[in-house]
Amino acid sequence: MNETLIVLTYVAAIAMGLTDYFGHRISGLASEYRDKILSLSSGLLISLLFLILIPDLVSTNFSSILFLFMLIGFIIMHLAEKYIYRHVENKQKVLEDLKMIHIFGFGFDNFMVGFIIAIVFMTDPLVMIELSIPLMLQMLSSSISLDSIDIRLNDRISKILLSTLPVIGASMGLILEFEQIYANYILSFALGVLFYMVIRDVIPQRGSGSPPLFLIGTLVTIGFWILRFFL
To answer: What's the rounded mean pLDDT across residues 136-155?
Structure first.
């Protein structure tokens, strides 16, 4: 295993963790622009999933089972949320349990950002460089979105814990680097979870948000996607 790539993997993972940590720190200041930031971020993330993350996953080891794992990740998040709505009678308890589900989802998302960094870096460092900006914006938008549903994240320990998950994810990715098949299954499951989180928590609902910024976010990722053909 290339030692330089290992170092770069951890540098990128730490950068993502710091992005998440400072995202929580500025979320209060950015609350006025939350829907605009989320519109831009959702455009970035949706196009990132469709144009880069899913195609790259499939190209490394195409198997229909990968799509099954994506579906399972999406379904688990959906069923967990619906179960809470239908089986918890106390309204305050429902809100608390939903917060925990979404904290888990965003925490898992942070973990998988580090995991993606490790897997992609070891496969193609150039692709990782292209993904760095969209992934950083993803971390920023996730932290702002999570703070909007759970004010308890004002707790410093919670912020630090969530911010260390990219480094933990990168470590796991490096450990599984020699087991590419298993890594792909874990990654496909994570993309299903990410898909749910983007639809449920990142894309502004109903009449809120900014369609032009959503489109700009999409076009930025398309630009990265096109750039790959010339590098």
So the answer is: 62
Q: pLDDT higher for 206 or 43?
A: 43
At 210, give phi and psi (nearest 5°). -130, 105
Cβ neighbours of residue 16 closer than 8 Å, sequence gap 6 or more: 110, 113, 114, 117, 135, 136, 139, 166
Q: CA 216, CA 222: separation in Å to the nearest integer?
A: 10
In angstroms, the CA 134 to CA 82 distance is 30
The larger pLDDT score, comparing residue 220 to residue 83, is at 220
For residue 165, report the phi and psi dihedrals to the nearest 5 degrees. -60, -35
Rounded to two decimals, the pTM is: 0.72
Over 60: is that where the pLDDT of 169 sits?
yes
b/e sequence 185-209, b meaning 16+ C-beta within 10 Å:
bbbbbbbbbbbbbbbebbbbeeeeb
Torsion over CA of 94, 96, 99 and 103, rounded to 10 degrees? -130
> Tell me, what DSSP letter sits at residue 19?
H
Banded model confidence at residue 72, pLDDT cuts 50, 70, 90? very high
Q: In the chain, what is the straight-line distance between the N-terminal and C-terminal CA atoms, in Å?
A: 24
- CA distances in angstroms from 72 to 186, 192, 194, 211, 222, listed in the order given: 11, 7, 12, 30, 27
Give the separation between CA 231 and CA 227, rounded to whole angstroms.
7
